[in-house]
Design brief:
The chain has 404 residues and is of the alpha/beta class. It has 15 helices and 18 strands.
Length: 404
Amino acid sequence: MKKRFVVIVLDGFGMQAMADAATARPGDEVSTTLGSILHDYPDLKLPNLEKLGLMNAYGAESAQMKFSPKAVFGKSELMHFGADTFMGHQEIMGSFPKKPLVQPFQMKVDEIKAHLEETGHKVVVRSNGGLRYLLVDDYCTVGDNIDADLGMAYNCTAPLDYMSFEKELEIGRRVREIATVNRVIPFGGTGNTIEDVLAAEETRQDTFIGIHAVKSKSYEQGYECRHLGYGVDEKVQAPTILTTHGVPVSLFGKVADIVANDGGKVVSCVDTAEVLDLTIEEIKKMEYGFICTNVQETDLAGHSQDSGWYKKLLEISDEKIGTILTLLNDDDILVVMADHGNDPNIGHNRHTRENVPLLIKKKGVEGVDIGLRKTLSDVGASVCDYFGVPATQNGTSFIGDLNK
């Protein structure tokens, strides 16, 4: 018996500002990613998303797209703080979001050093102008991420010819146990040395110190990376729960880089047509299991403030989703959704805090509004409910709404 649950995440494809946007992210209260694209391209036609209930979820019709009376649809708020792809996907998979803190590494360096030493690691303190970072087990630096928003993440950087990524990841997990910033990011590559890593040391604003990722030569070959989010426990997320209970899981696109799926299949890919073609091939091959795909380029179009590019990517996605619809059998479920907004016309290139669509297809189920969900985790909870495995940490299944 074929039984698949497929989730397509159109990254950054929000509907309209969340109710708390004015206080949670001032300026985002006017955001509407879909609305901005329709404003610029009122004749936009996405027939498959329209059929799935895109305009029902949006709450208004456009010149070319109307409400679909047979659609099964809803929309979801974001429970995580802000509007973040990484935390959005952790939430989708069933994690209960914790609010991270913005903290320079200097505020936690002593506590992290003590914890690493207590767990058997050799730790040397390195300093520059009074700012300190750590060298752990001779080959892994721990300090601020100076390549992104400062104070939001700590990096663990190691030359992987001299320290295995598994050992570096264990160090990163120890740092994660103490750190309260958004992410701890262990990464490294082959072909470089610890001298290359240390030579990439830089400071920012007399407050932050870390390793410049590109200058460390970590990206040049053999690159490996894992993002460890605050409050994220992979054991309570859908992919780990499913694979532990024998249900195959395949992740495609950016979700493969940011969600743990040690017992399943992960394929990184950015190009929209390619990542959806990979998804189509997987559906054809998979008899039973869970597939999640992230379409990243829609988010990149939002960051580029390019509604024309966004429109083209939506048209490609819609065509491929049409193919996916032809491959579904009576027991399959398809969900098309987003993880946050990224309004190309709002006047900045950051994510926007928006409600996102939940467009659902299950043969034999028609005309159901599952309402405004409080968390993206309802998707992960529904996946686990569908396969009859233990529940995720967070979320409420909507499977019952489909069986009424």
